[in-house]
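User: I'm writing a tutorial on reading structure tokens. Could you give me a worked example: one chain, its sequence, then its tokens, then a sentence or two explaining what the tokens reveal?
Assistant: Sure. Here is the example chain.
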Amino acid sequence: MHLIQVDSVQRWMEDLKLMTDCECMCILQSKPISMEKDEQNELVLSSQYSTRDNLQLLLKRAWIISTELTRIAQKLEKSRWQRVHSMTVRVNCHVRSMVNEHNAFARSSSEEMHQLEKLLIDKCSEFTAFTERCLQTEDEEILKSMKSCVNETLTTVAQYFGQLIELVLTHEAQNLLRQIELSGSLYVTELAISSLFSLAQEGAHLCRIIAKEGGVVALFKICRQDCFRCLYPQTLRTLASICCVEEGMHQLEKVDGILCLADILTDSSHSEATHAEAAAVIAQITSPHLTFTQHLSSFLENMEEIVTALVKLCQEASSGEVFLLASAALANITFFDTMACEILLQLNAMKILLAACSDKRIVDTPYSRDQVVTILANMSVLDQCASEIIQGNGVQLLMEMLFEKSSSGNPAEVAACERVQQKSAVTLARLSRDPEVADAAIKLSCIPRLIKLCRSPTERNNSDSVLVACLAALRRLAVVSPGGLEDTDFQQLVKPRLVDSFLLCTSMEESFV
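And here are its predicted structure tokens:
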């Protein structure tokens, strides 16, 4: 009996090295600090976090458990039973902590949730006991036969865990939406919307949960009440997050969300912040990366009003952030429907955008220039666009964009710079069908710059898309001015098939430049 106790203690001491934190959490949450009821309640109340903090804690704990379960599966595959057991004990502790934490801040829990919690905790205990038995067995044949049972138990734990998290998050979303719909208090509504926004930031799955529970409907209801005008920017920002998923888009269509956004954008009594956040929602729902925008039939009905309001917002933007949101929405709309380009031309949008680019306070990042050059590239398919470009000194701007470089080295900024280079080359290639634009580009030494981008991988950050666009632009300009290229450049970059020139440039060493 003494030997068994010693072995158990030693094993516990070994496991403790790997699970000190969560073991402490379990003990602290399971044992009352004070025996006096009033004192204990006071302690609990004083340590309460906001709903948002509690949700963040829950999600963090869920992420840890999910990661641990994945690692257990990996160690199990390699039959590393010591690690499997210690990690199983750790998961057991984390699960108990998570359940205790949730029950501490949850206002109410359903019977279904309590049943799932019990199932999960029981299954975790069973899992821990199972792996401990495996640890005590040295017979390889027995261990091999037990492995499938352990795998099955692991799968069940993961299944129960997934169901519980889904139920908890759905319950929390329902609580927040109930507060938004039923509270007449500005303060309570603001807190609920803020917590909902934080929840939506955790990923597409949570956005789907919120959308399915009526989040889009509830938020648009706020946007239709004048008494909540001061909450419009925050509400619209939350809507933009939720509408990244198909369920959110369907809900938006059902509640005439496009019409509501158009009304907000065209109402001059709203603040610039409200207009900017409405533009952000438009940018989200018209994103060319989404595959489920075809059903937005009501958008076409309101497109002219929306485009007009967005152009005005670009023109009157007081900051780079406002301009970025408005121009991003316009850029996406030019992909969404070709009629938008004609509307932009009628509104003198080209002149407004080119003028904004000369103001470094407004167009201050590669991200903003990316939006502007996207609009120019999509508008350049129209024949009337060439004269607008010439009048607004647009060729000079496109030339400058060919030199776009990241100052920070941030991957997102580097990618934006590549897009600016690529789209400026595409725009030049399209516009150079007009002799006047081609002459202006040649006079501004676009040909040497395009050659440099083709031959020097570092100049284009090794981007193949920039290379293809530059080759296309170079070939278009070479038709107008063949004498502007040296014979070597002509023979390698213009005369061969584009694919051959591309392969040649991608295989070039930097020493050739």
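What the tokens reveal: Residues 48-170 form a domain with the Four Helix Bundle (Hemerythrin (Met), subunit A) fold (CATH 1.20.120.330). Residues 140-182 form the longest helix (43 residues).
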